[in-house]
Amino acid sequence: MKSLQRLAVRLGVSSRVRFRGEVPHTVVGEYMRAADLVLIASHMEGNPTVLFEALGSGRPVVASRVGGIPDIVTDDLGILTEPGDPAQLSMAVQEAINRPWDAVGIARTADRWAWPRLASDVLAVYRRVVTEEARR
Asked: What is the pTM assigned to this prediction?
């Protein structure tokens, strides 16, 4: 984290950037709601929890087009970029900051990935498979 703090000083943004490190899970929502957007600049991912936390908090994301992220992030939820392309990432952040977002709509859309709904969907698939097998 020290190298990032030095970079912020060198870039002249240290008065606008806070490096909090690890925070208790109970305050993650507060941090998300205080953000204008959430950046997920991964090179490899599955379906990162921070993506669902951001969307559930009504925050748009700028995220790398890796893993399961493109299956989740649509144009109304954020902007996708190619991994490892800092210029494209920078342009996407600028676009996201200047675009009007529907925080309520983002949070409402994120409900489809809430655990109870996902668990219900998985259970329905299992029931269908078991029923089809029983018929054979």
From this structure: 0.75
